[in-house]
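Exercise: predict the fold of this chain.
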Amino acid sequence: MSVAKKEYKRVTVKSLVDMKKQGEKISMLTAYDYSMAKIVDAAQVDVILVGDSASNVMAGHETTLPITLDQMIYHASSVIRAVERALVVVDLPFGSYQSDPKEALRSAIRIMKESGAHAVKLEGGEEIKESVKRILNAGIPVMGHLGLTPQSIYKFGTYTVRAKEEEEAKKLMEDAKLLEKMGCFSIVLEKIPATLTKKVSESISIPTIGIGGGRHADGQVLVIHDLLGMTHEFNPRFLRRYMNLYDEMSEAISNYVKDVKTRDFPSEEEQY
């Protein structure tokens, strides 16, 4: 059933909860710089995630672990300057919140004050509840993240689907309810069975955002570089490429090099 889309001049955490109540799906994409964020925001994406995936697609690291708090603030500041409508959520990077709730609060405050972001995102449930509580008590909106949590890749040892077994699925459900009860405004569910996504989404009042979690989430998120086909090595089942920019950009750049070498560029019309 199609649902009438409400026009939001500025998307807020309340807007997302309202979207869930009204049955309107939430769109979320990553962005890490001014130019890309400008395009994403103009396309009416509801939420822009300044993800620690910048560690992979912007800096070339194998995992999300190396990116620092200062680097996340730099990327978030660039995005904020471009955005007029979307809610901007920033990942707290690995090591900035897991072991010390006071450090978690300091990290979140730095992101909010120095970048102008609207919310932060943390990976985990019960094990990080004290950090989540501190941040929420300071009035900073928190988005949760359960299922496959990339910052814990060395603990898992693989990027395979999570929560397929009953015990892990039960814990994920408990963590989702805990995050809701604490006051989180939304939860990302990454790479878990679609049936579990449906169960979680129907059990909590805050919206779920899926990535590899199937169609039953209240919204979806993808990494912008993957969606546009700027990356070509990464081919998970959940990824739909809407363009093939890798080939198109390669061809355009090769044509530029050829035109420079053959003295075709610049032409008479392209000089002063």
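Check your answer against the key: The two ends are 58 Å apart (CA to CA).
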